[in-house]
Amino acid sequence: MSRKAFRRLTLDERKRTLLEATLTCVAQQGLKGATVRRIAEEAGVTAGLLRHYFGSKNGLITSAYAYLIGQLTAEAETRARQSTGDANDQLRHFLIANMTMPNLSEEKVSLWATFIGRVRYETDFADIHREGYRDYLSLLEGLIEPVLAAHGLPRSAAACRRHAIAVNGLIDGLWMEGSLNSGLYSRAILPDLVTEACERLLELPAGSLSGEKQPT
Amino acid sequence: MSRKAFRRLTLDERKRTLLEATLTCVAQQGLKGATVRRIAEEAGVTAGLLRHYFGSKNGLITSAYAYLIGQLTAEAETRARQSTGDANDQLRHFLIANMTMPNLSEEKVSLWATFIGRVRYETDFADIHREGYRDYLSLLEGLIEPVLAAHGLPRSAAACRRHAIAVNGLIDGLWMEGSLNSGLYSRAILPDLVTEACERLLELPAGSLSGEKQPT
DNA sequence: AGTGTAGTTATACATTTGTATAAAATTGTG
DNA sequence: CACAATTTTATACAAATGTATAACTACACT
Prior knowledge:
Two copies of one chain form a homodimer.
Chain A (H helix, E strand, L loop, with lengths): L10 H23 L2 H8 L4 H7 L2 H26 L4 H11 L8 H11 L6 H28 L6 H24 L9 H13 L14
Helix pairs in contact in A: 1-2, 1-4, 1-6, 3-4, 4-5, 4-6, 4-7, 5-7, 6-8, 7-8, 8-9
Chain A binds a DNA duplex (30 and 30 nucleotides) through helix 3.
């Protein structure tokens, strides 16, 4: 009996492989199904490697959570910045990024919820959550402020913050229910729904965000 | 060595005891910490009873999820109906019920998130989620419609539905982030924030929901 | 008070899990 | 091509977990 043949990977490659295998497993069967053995199998390695790279299973899971949050925020931020348009356009793309794939996915929301469930009683998770939320809120605030400016609306720091909190709530809630997709409505309505709702939250003229700025 | 003394309870009493012990355990350490032994200890019984009443651990966890959702919706509905005021007042109380204790609690959100994480891959959980979401949405729709009517706003079935989806998203998102309370802002701002945001979402005159209708 | 019933306890058991450690194989370097 | 470094595998092990089942006991009813 010979040993299993293997290939060495760089530290970053290997870590990413393991993190993605972890997320795959958690998404499929929750934390309960994410055993070191199953994750290792998913990654095509043996169980010992997980400890080698992440110290313990907990270390791996924690890193996977941070990895996921990073992905979600980066995707939304990238889509906003990719937009070459004005402030309205950037905010619109940010909103839509959260209401379409890849962010709007049952898998992503399941992962996110599973991890959120641990924020309360595990310090590591609480730290990652707090930091991720803070980053996301700042990002959103930074997108909202120039939109208010463009429409000549009040834009004190306090006002921007309140708006960001509300809009973030709207995004989170729609993202969640939309991703889980209870079948009560089609996901396809979400991009328009969120932009229109955001216009009203910020008291922008109708069509500022949802208008036909990008004809077919 | 004598056996442990015990008291017989009615079926409903015992079930409720076990369900609440389950939620307590899940809230404290997540599903991982909610072992049959720990739950039994929390409930002051021995492990065998759980299977006796719920068939299996999975049956118990599933029932606990349904129990939680029922609690959350019932609390909000009760607070809305308790309000003796007009339609605006009822909607306001509904909103506020979700932004104050007992619904706005880290424990409740943690439980909810933990369970939501299983909706994707477990049929039982998906069913409970879908049904709970549908009920909640109908409830909200039923509160929104008369408010729109009172203000002479369009209130087609489609419009009410869209508004309910958006407002529900807002509530869910704020409820979550507010309960987890990252320390970025005080929970105390949420009742006003949600009512004002809802006014704008529904395009009501400012103060319709948040106004000083109930002087000290 | 006696008696049956089913609510409740107590114990056993196979399986799974995370961790630890030693052995082996891959790869870059001289 | 040999050697060293360290990535990766393979095996062992104690602890914990869900389930199954038999024994006991509280309580209602006669």
